[in-house]
Amino acid sequence: MPSLTFTLHSWCVLFMFMLAAGRTLAASISGSAASSPKPPMWPDQFTSKFTVRIEKYGDNFSKPGIVYYNWKIKTLRSDFIDWCLPLFDKPELHHNYTCSFFMADGNMYFVNHTANTWQNHDCCLFAGGLGTITPDWVKNCQYNGSAMLRGQTVDVWWFPGTSDPNMPCYGYWDTVDDHTPVQFFGLASIGPAILDYDSFHVGPPDAEMTKPVGGCSKQCESARLGATLFDSPWPSCG
User: Fold this and answer.
1) What phi and psi, each to the nearest 5 degrees, are found at residue 93?
2) Which of 29-43, 130-144, 199-213 has the lowest mean pLDDT?
3) Sequence-distant (≥ 6) Cβ neighbours of residue 54 within 8 angstroms
4) 228 exposed, middle or buried (CB, 10 Å; 0-12, 13-18, 19+)?
5) Please, is 166 exposed, middle or buried when counting C-beta atoms within 10 Å of its C-beta (0-12, 13-18, 19+)?
6) If 0-12 CB within 10 Å is exposed, 13-18 middle and 19+ buried, where does residue 18 land?
7) Opening angle at CA 21, ends 188 and 199, nearest 5
8) 172 beta partners
């Protein structure tokens, strides 16, 4: 299980952290492709399982994860189980371990699951100033009508970056009746990627939601020879 160096160009940290981009990518949207309902709010506290799907890896690729959100203490923890996000140019060699990305104190931290307890895991500062997203982040999106997805009627929300509502740079789908998250789509340096949510549970997360021992103040650094990080520009969109 490697310890890692990151750069902000290594935004193959996709999915839940693309949501944070909603604060900046969608800060000024005018107009709408459809008559918009009131944007949904995330609950202040929830837990949800998710399945990661990467287009370039094919239809048979799927990896599990779980996200814990607690706005009352301004934290978000996203665990990628037995498959860490591919941050290297040869991800097949370096991704088969469990890791977490943890937002707290206005920063994002990388947690490498190297111990038997959360508090003893290796931890480092991934991105200073990238804090937990707010429950009302969807207000920064543009509404694009409703659709059927995974057997459910969903509202479709998308971020700017393209004029074609059927090909958004980033998209979010939630159920029309109770606004349960269903899917998130985004572009990363490894290409189009999807999170399928399931087992959504509202309430305090049953997980450690504080930084591991040591405070995670050290910058993330690489210790693996020959492991080159992705450092490509954000993919073209539009």
Assistant:
1) -95, -15
2) 29-43
3) 61, 190, 191, 192, 193, 194
4) exposed
5) exposed
6) buried
7) 80
8) 157, 184
Which DSSP string do the residues of 123-160 spell out, in sequence order? EEEEEET--PPPTTGGGGSEEEEEEEETTEEEEEEE-S
C-alpha to C-alpha distance for 19 and 1, rounded to whole angstroms = 27
What tokens appear for 168 in the block? 């958004």
Distance CA 21, CA 131 (A): 11
Kindly give the pairing relationship between strand 142-149 and strand 152-158: antiparallel
Rounded distance, CA 94 to CA 21, Å? Answer: 26
Buried b (16+ CB within 10 A) or exposed e, 19-55: bbbbeebbeeeeeeeeeeeebbebeebbbbbbebbbe
Q: Tell me the whole-structure pTM to 2 decimals.
A: 0.80
Place 94 in a pLDDT band, splitting at 50, 70 and 90. low
